[in-house]
Specification:
Blueprint: H1 3-28, E1 34-40, H2 41-46, E2 58-63, E3 67-73, E4 78-84, H3 85-89, H4 95-124, H5 134-161, H6 164-169, E5 178-185, H7 187-208, H8 219-231
Antiparallel strand pairs: 1-2, 1-5, 2-3, 3-4
């Protein structure tokens, strides 16, 4: 492939990596990771609510990695409640998983920025054929993509398997019991998915630029190696 086209491809990949770093950084600070509704089970059972009457006992909840908000509905109108994961909910939620999600988000941002820098370095400089060159670009893209996948797996398990929404809804509730009525992942979660796909796309762009995947031997390299052996 001509050098000009390689430069364009590396510039596109660098811009995409930088955009992913900014998107992940923005996603971490929002409370739009999960959005759903919670049912005041105790209140609904007391009045034997059914059908449209249940709407008076269904509140809303949304949260991110650091903070969130829920609206408590127990038949007397909505009562908003702000909460923070640190340090309020650490004893209630699976803290190890939650902290791991935050750490992998940080690693994703770091390697997305590193990848963006090296893509630009390969576009406008003369890199070495080591971590500065295509091998490094594959490595940074692979690490960033892997971190994105781990973030989604860990956070999904925290929400679905450990019932994070119910634990938050029942936090500091003595006489009332809440149950998750509906929940879905919100914008910030899907930003992580898009970033993972972008880093995978960057690896394909590197291959499209004419650089083979690491640890793959071409026929030409084997021929050259054989010729060198014959010289000695």
């Amino acid at each position: 492939m001509p050098a000009q086209q390689k430069k364009i491809i590396f510039c596109i990949a660098g811009v995409l990596s930088f955009a992913c770093a900014l998107g992940t950084a923005a996603a971490i600070g929002t409370q739009r990771w999960v959005k759903g509704t919670i049912l005041c089970k105790t209140g609904a059972l007391l009045v034997n609510a059914t059908g449209q009457e249940l709407e008076k006992f269904i509140g809303e909840i949304q949260y991110g990695l650091f903070h969130g908000e829920r609206v408590r509905q127990c038949g007397l109108g909505g009562r908003p409640f702000q909460f923070s994961f640190f340090p309020d909910l650490l004893k209630v939620i699976p803290a190890s998983i939650h902290v791991s999600v935050i750490l992998f988000c940080t690693v994703l941002i770091i390697f997305a920025l590193v990848g963006a820098g090296f893509f630009m370095f390969n576009a406008f400089g003369s890199p070495y054929e080591t971590l500065h060159g295509p091998v490094g670009l594959y490595l940074w893209s692979f690490i960033a993509c892997s971190c994105g996948c781990l973030i989604m797996i860990l956070f999904s398990s925290e929400v679905k398997i450990h019932h994070l929404s119910e634990k938050i809804a029942n936090f500091k509730e003595g006489s009332f019991t809440f149950k998750t009525h509906s929940e879905q992942f919100a914008n910030s979660f899907w930003i992580i998915l898009v970033c993972s796909l972008v880093h995978f796309l960057n690896a394909l762009l590197i291959r499209f630029a004419g650089f083979q995947f690491p640890f793959s031997k071409s026929k030409d390299s084997g021929t050259i190696t054989g010729a060198v052996d014959l010289m000695y």
